[in-house]
Structures are given as structure tokens and as C-alpha cells.
Design brief:
Elements lengths: L1 E5 L3 H11 L13 E5 L10 E10 L2 H7 L15 E2 L4 E8 L11 E4 L14 H4 L33 E5 L3 E3 L6 H4 L2 H13 L7 E5 L3 H12 L5 E6 L2 H10 L3 E4 L4 H8 L3 E3 L7 E3 L2 E6 L4 H9 L1 E9 L12 H5 L3 E4 L5 E4 L2 E4 H12 L3 H4 E5 L4 H8 L2 H4 L3 E5 L2
Parallel strand pairs: 9-10, 9-14, 10-11, 14-15, 15-16, 19-20
Antiparallel strand pairs: 1-2, 1-4, 3-5, 3-7, 3-20, 5-6, 6-8, 12-13, 17-18
Helix pairs in contact: 5-6, 5-11, 6-7
Length: 405
């Protein structure tokens, strides 16, 4: 089968980093850690697995972090090389193990990519017993090679390949009323819902959504669809992002240009000060800040923009951050939270997987896929797809997907 494979060793990693300083194309050309290859189809690890033929696959911000080597090397023990990239998925079951009775050949499905104890066919660890699957303690054990999610595990394959395998506990049948283009957005919507559900604002609170890419937009969209009347300010880099943020429910949008801290201080009734050396700091701020970027600047400013004892939620996948001043954490007694993937969420005293919740919201409200999915590519054109996905300003890209049909 054809698949885009990530295969790194120390020499290739260092060479790609050095060449990448000349041109970003060295991160995804034939000298890089990723290649389009013909590889064997993955086999079912047990009778509890199904094989899926990919129809759509999305390019996630975490995929771009991987390709451009922005991830911290500290996560390398929790992946198995080489692996097929991609976890945003939609496909059709073409093979199933004897122990799979819940699904049939030909079912259109999505797969929750988290490789927890159930997927690894192990007794549940303490995290999985609490149904906090994204923090599973056994991500290097069991039936599968190391990997936190599909798309980082050599056993399962990934959605940037023609076929991948999944444990029956991961598989969700897509209702006939949900379009393919809606179903492929379940994953990014779940990524937005997980931090929203864990830090849901009161209607009286002021919220800042820092970043208006796909996750920031879906944080705003999900807050409104879940009934929040909180005052939402979005911080956007580009005009097309700002227009969608307003359309999706932000009360106002501030552009990330010179002087934006002063503008946000006025909105949040914060006081702004200029220290003896360095950038401006604030007293007061927003009740909750969802940082959907995760850069040095957004972390620094996002924490100062959070009011005393407020919540700063890091949604963007930050890794190595040089010279980051952590003063606001203790000075403002902030509640600093992280969000990784998806898990289960409490809904009216019931627990529901984040993936199921995302699918339910799409069934109930629809999702404006025609505004969110901006580009479609064949897998063979993966280099152009990466170029477009990583050039948001010039290409006006939001969600870029591979179409296998």
C-alpha cells in the first residue's frame, strides 16, 4: 500500500534540522524524515481488531509539528519507528477479527486514535480505570508497539496510508445522516471539546481564545453549541480567520498586531504596566484563556492576560520553549491546565467519549465543513498539501485533507 512514513534516526534528524534552516521544504522533501513509500498493509494484531480502508485523512497541527521537528525529543520513547503519519480519519471496514460482532464489513467508521489499555488488550491502568484514556500509563506495552495514538505507532498504521487497523473499542460507526466531510472533522472538534468540557466557563465570565486556526475556531463553535453565553474574545492573525471567529460566535475579534495587549487589557478590565526591562505585564485579565497556539509569545502573553486565580488552558502543543518567564503562574496564582487529545466527558451525570460527543454535536447542529475544509489533495501530492497547510496566511488554509476516493 502507499503511505507517508516518518522514520527518524539521530543523523537524519540533525541533518533535517540543519537543512531546514535553508528552506522549510527540506522538512518534507526526499532528504527529510518523511517519505511516500510502498509498504505492506498492517495485519490484525488480534481477533478484536478490524482493518479499515482510508477514504479521508486530515492534516493536524500536531502532524505539522512532527514534520517540522518542533516536537520535543522527550516524547520519542512513546512512538515506534518507522510509523505511518496521520490520526484524523474516516474509512470503511474491509476485514474484521472473529471476536468483532459490533461491526460489519462495509461499515463507514471513524476511529478514536488513542491507544489505551483496551486497545493494547491489557488490564486497565489507574488512568484508564477512571476513563481518562489520553493519560494511559501503558502506552509502550501490550499487543502494540509504543505509541500514544494511531499515527505514532508502527503496528497500527496511520490515516496517511491506504489502510490501518484499530481495536473494536476505538471504532465508531458513522450515521448515514453525517456526510464524509463532516465526519473527518470529528477529530479536530473533539480536540477542541476536550479542553472546553474540562474548563467550561460560566455565563458571567470573560473568555479569550488565543488563535483562530481550526482548533480555536472550533473552541468558539463548541462553546456556543453547548449553550455558553460567556463573553468570548478571539485573537486572530489573519482577516479570514477573524471573519470566521465572529461568524462562529465570538463577541469580538482582536488582530494579533502591535498594541493588541492594550486592546485586550481594556476588554478584560485589566491594568497594564511596563516593567523596567521587558514586555508589558497585566494585573487582572480574562477568567479563562484557551491558548490554541502554544508558542513562546502566546504562552507568555496568555498567562499575563489571565486574571488572578483564573485558568490558563494550554491547548496548542508547545514543547521546548526558550527563556519563558513563568512569573505569572505564581504571581497571579493561576490554574494552568494542559489538554491532550480526547478522553471521556461528563454530560448530565453520564460519561461520553469526546469523539462520541463531537459526532453527536455534528448530528444535532451540522458543522460548516465547506468553510473549514479549504483544500483537498491526493496522497501522492502530500508535499504540496504540507506546503499549503503550513502557509495559512498566503493560502488561506484552515483544514487540509487527503481524499482517497
Amino acid at each position: 500500500m502507499k503511505a507517508v512514513v516518518f522514520d527518524a534516526n539521530v543523523a537524519k534528524y540533525i541533518r533535517t534540522l540543519l537543512l531546514g534552516k535553508i528552506s522549510k521544504k527540506f522538512f518534507y522533501n526526499r532528504f527529510s524524515c518523511i517519505q511516500l513509500k510502498d509498504i505492506p498493509e498492517p495485519e490484525l494484531p488480534s481477533e478484536n481488531y478490524v482493518k479499515i480502508k482510508t477514504t479521508y485523512a486530515g492534516i493536524c497541527g500536531s502532524d505539522l509539528n512532527l514534520i517540522f521537528l518542533h516536537d520535543s525529543p522527550s516524547t520519542s520513547p512513546f512512538a515506534s519507528f518507522p510509523f505511518v503519519i496521520g490520526h484524523e480519519n474516516l474509512g470503511v471496514i474491509i476485514e474484521k477479527g472473529k471476536a468483532v460482532s459490533e461491526f460489519e464489513i462495509g461499515d463507514r467508521v471513524i476511529v478514536d486514535p488513542v491507544l489505551d489499555c483496551d486497545a493494547r488488550e491489557l488490564p486497565r491502568c489507574s488512568s484508564c480505570q477512571e476513563e481518562e484514556f489520553s493519560t494511559c500509563l501503558n502506552i509502550t506495552e501490550g499487543k502494540l508497539s509504543p505509541g500514544t495514538i494511531m499515527g505514532a505507532c508502527s503496528t497500527t498504521g496511520g490515516s496517511w496510508g491506504e489502510y490501518f487497523v484499530a481495536h473494536k473499542s476505538q471504532v465508531i460507526k458513522v450515521p448515514a445522516t453525517v456526510k464524509d466531510q463532516e465526519a473527518i472533522l470529528v477529530d479536530p472538534l473533539a480536540s477542541a471539546l476536550h479542553p472546553v468540557m474540562r474548563s467550561f466557563p460560566k455565563d458571567s465570565e470573560k473568555v479569550l481564545v488565543y488563535g483562530a486556526g481550526i482548533i480555536g475556531l472550533l473552541v468558539i463553535w463548541s462553546l456556543r453549541k453547548l449553550g455558553s453565553s460567556a463573553d468570548i474574545t478571539a485573537l486572530a492573525k489573519y482577516d479570514f480567520q477573524a471573519d470566521l471567529a465572529k461568524e462562529f460566535g465570538a463577541n469580538r475579534v482582536v488582530k494579533s498586531k502591535e498594541g493588541y495587549l492594550d486592546e485586550l487589557a481594556k476588554i478584560s478590565d485589566a491594568k497594564i504596566f511596563k516593567p523596567m526591562i521587558g514586555d508589558k505585564v497585566l494585573l487582572g485579565g480574562f477568567d479563562k484563556v484557551f491558548d490554541c497556539v502554544g508558542s513562546r509569545k502566546t504562552i507568555r502573553d496568555g498567562m499575563w492576560l489571565t486574571k488572578q486565580r483564573g485558568s490558563y488552558i494550554l491547548v496548542g502543543l508547545a514543547s521546548l520553549v526558550k527563556d519563558l518567564d513563568l512569573t505569572p503562574i505564581w504571581f497571579k496564582e493561576l490554574n494552568v491546565k494542559g489538554a491532550y487529545c480526547y478522553s471521556t466527558e461528563n454530560i448530565n451525570e453520564y460519561k461520553m467519549s469526546t469523539y462520541q460527543l463531537a459526532l453527536s454535536l455534528i448530528q444535532q447542529h451540522g458543522i460548516p465543513y465547506e468553510k473549514l475544509i479549504t483544500h483537498y489533495f491526493r496522497l501522492e501530492d502530500y508535499q504540496k498539501a504540507i506546503e499549503v497547510a503550513s502557509s495559512k496566511g498566503s493560502e488561506k488554509s484552515i483544514k487540509v485533507v487527503f481524499k482517497f476516493l
